[in-house]
TrEMBL record:
It comes from Aeromicrobium phragmitis. Its EC number is 2.2.1.6. One of its GO terms (biological process) is L-valine biosynthetic process. Residues 397-544 form the Thiamine pyrophosphate enzyme TPP-binding domain. Belongs to the TPP enzyme family. GO terms for molecular function: acetolactate synthase activity; flavin adenine dinucleotide binding; magnesium ion binding; thiamine pyrophosphate binding. Its cofactor is Mg(2+); thiamine diphosphate. The keyword Transmembrane does not apply. This is Acetolactate synthase. InterPro entries: DHS-like_NAD/FAD-binding_dom (IPR029035), THDP-binding (IPR029061), Thiamin_PyroP_enz_cen_dom (IPR012000), Thiamin_PyroP_enz_TPP-bd_dom (IPR012001), TPP-bd_CS (IPR000399), TPP_enz (IPR045229), TPP_enzyme_TPP-bd (IPR011766). NCBIfam families: PRK05858.1. The keyword Metal-binding applies.
Length: 559
């Protein structure tokens, strides 16, 4: 018998692909994202031949498969599944896995691996993957034998779906993947035990709130991920505390809500006396946890609330903190606040911030309706916003252009906003679009591209076309890496490696791949072009030429 015959023995039960797939199904996985590779053929065979076949979305570049699976995790709050072939297939997934790690996205990546029987002999694409992933996953393991596949994959899904959520990686030797035998390990699925918050710590935070004159609460992505959006809205409304949305916390309070003061962010965070940050790290997006100190106000007290103890900040000076199931935290905090001797009254503070919001809306109106030539990027949002349905999913993939989206787009419902999160990884847009179209089949799906980011994944329009996944894409095309061009000019008086080819026809790329598209140079034509895109029923790209000098007015470079 040859070594090849030894590697693939006669079947004696379900092969390793079935062992892994049955576990994934038990954890709620409904779609597999991949790029074809022989090391993982058993996963495909299991998906096709299962009694309940699983759809396979095959992409043109592995990062898109992982970005798609990560976005499934974000949107459904159930771990997404990406399957990558060995060696470069796996390493192509490193940046998306890192994004999932920093975003707290539930994700499982199953990788192929060179055969165990010939390990160390220099087999094709032989690489020990888990050490590469150890610092950017909750767990990274090899299921070295057929009998280990089901329990190791089961643990990966449990790790990924437990607070604090994140990615998990498993690779499986090719010969063991093709091997067959009975499935001896079954999974009961992804029901996780909530982390019980400390009641005394909640009472301490309630006391700080009761004494505060100018509190603000920041609602981060984990409020959504931890299924706490209803409790969060209930707390904000009944307590009457002004709120700012961050990441997937957007939409927890619908755009236009009287207590949503994101448009008064600078005033709120700069002059508050208490900042309660929930479900997001105290990183560069939040001044590393330092609030207050502006316009004569003293430094504020910072409270950090997280879904698990390991997420509580260790670098910021905290007045209090608590970790645990965020629904329990919000409900416990509301009860403790209402039990205080005197109910705090923040109407004057809230009114001040509401006035700031109204002023910002008035200022924004001029930009949203700008007739400038070249087109101001804000005008795109002026045309897009009134065309978005309440349940639309908006995806940001870019630098400067997407910063404007963060300023203007306020979702009406939770779970309607996707961005790269704190890792800032470009190229995630089309993978996220695939996931959004699958997870929300009846909703509008809109991808907002900077022209730099568009170049990283646009080939996967082919995937959208082949799998009949219509989405609307909008490119803010200023022919530059805008997020780098202006800072370099500020630092050095010149810029280099920041320009792209002028007026690149990304719309024609999409048309060539089987979708539709058009270029827009007149601001009055943006709206009609968007109407055609939404009505097309195919992947459609609106390529808008914008003014490279219309930079987003940012206060931080992220360092």
């Amino acid at each position: 018998m040859t070594s090849d015959e030894n590697a693939f023995p006669e079947p004696s039960g379900p092969h390793g692909g079935h062992h892994a797939l049955e576990i994934a199904k038990a954890h709620g996985v409904e779609t597999m994202f991949t790029l074809s590779g022989a090391h993982v053929f058993p996963m495909y065979d299991a998906a096709v031949k299962s009694d309940d076949p699983m759809p396979i979305i095959d992409v043109r570049h592995e990062p898109s498969a992982v970005f798609a699976a990560e976005a499934i995790g974000k949107l459904t709050r159930t771990p997404g599944l990406a399957v990558l072939t060995a060696g470069p297939g796996v390493t192509n997934g490193v940046s998306p896995v890192a994004q999932a790690y920093f975003s707290g996205s539930p994700l499982v990546v199953v990788g192929g691996r060179a055969p165990a029987a010939t390990w160390g002999a220099g087999t094709l694409q032989e690489l020990d993957h888990p050490p590469i992933f150890e610092t950017i996953t909750k767990s990274a393991r090899t299921a070295g034998r057929l009998a280990q596949i089901a329990p190791v994959v089961d643990q990966a899904f449990t790790d990924a779906g437990s607070s604090h959520r994140g990615p998990a990686f498993v690779d499986i030797p090719m010969d063991e993947f093709f091997n067959s035998g009975p499935i001896e390990h079954r999974s009961t699925g992804g029901a996780m035990t909530p982390v019980e918050p400390d009641g005394d710590r909640i009472t301490q935070i309630a006391a700080l709130l009761a004494r505060a004159e100018r509190p603000v609460i920041i609602l981060g992505s984990d409020v959504w991920s931890d299924h706490a959006e209803e409790a969060a809205r209930r707390f904000v409304e009944e307590a009457g505390v002004p709120a700012i949305a961050n990441g997937m916390g957007r939409g927890v309070l619908p755009g236009g809500h009287e207590l949503l003061v994101t448009k008064a962010r600078s005033r709120a965070l700069g002059t508050c006396d208490l900042a309660v940050v929930v479900g997001t790290p105290l990183d560069f997006r939040l001044g590393f946890g330092r609030f207050g100190g502006k316009d004569g106000a003293p430094a504020a007290t910072t409270v950090h609330i997280a879904d698990s103890p390991g997420q509580v900040s260790t670098h910021a000076e905290l007045g209090a903190s608590v970790a645990g199931d965020l629904t329990q935290v919000f409900d416990g905090l509301l009860a403790a606040l209402q039990a205080q001797p005197a109910k705090p009254d923040w109407t004057v503070w809230a009114s001040d911030l509401q006035a700031q919001v109204a002023a910002a809306v008035e200022r924004d109106a001029a930009l949203l309706g700008a007739e400038a030539d070249p087109i101001h990027p804000a005008r795109i949002y002026g045309e897009l916003l009134p065309r978005l349905a309440d349940d639309a999913v908006v995806i940001g993939d870019g630098g400067d252009f997407v910063s404007f989206a963060g300023k203007f787009v306020e979702p009406k419902r939770p779970g309607g906003w996707l961005d790269p999160g704190p890792y800032g990884c470009l190229g995630a847009g089309l993978g996220a679009a695939m996931a959004a179209r699958i997870a929300r089949p009846d909703s509008q799906v809109v991808v907002l591209f900077g022209d730099g980011a568009a170049g990283m994944s646009l080939i996967d329009v082919d995937t959208l076309v082949r799998h009949n996944l219509p989405v609307v894409m909008v490119v803010g095309n200023n022919s530059a890496w805008g997020l780098e061009k202006s800072p370099m000019q500020m630092l050095y008086g010149y810029d280099v490696a920041a320009d792209l080819a002028p007026q690149t026809r990304y719309d024609q790329v999409v048309t060539a791949l089987g979708g539709g598209g058009e270029m827009v140079t007149d601001p009055r034509e943006i709206g009609p072009a968007l109407d055609r895109a939404f009505a097309s029923g195919i992947p459609y790209l609106v390529n808008v030429m914008t003014d490279v000098n219309a930079q987003y007015p940012r206060a931080t470079m992220g360092v």
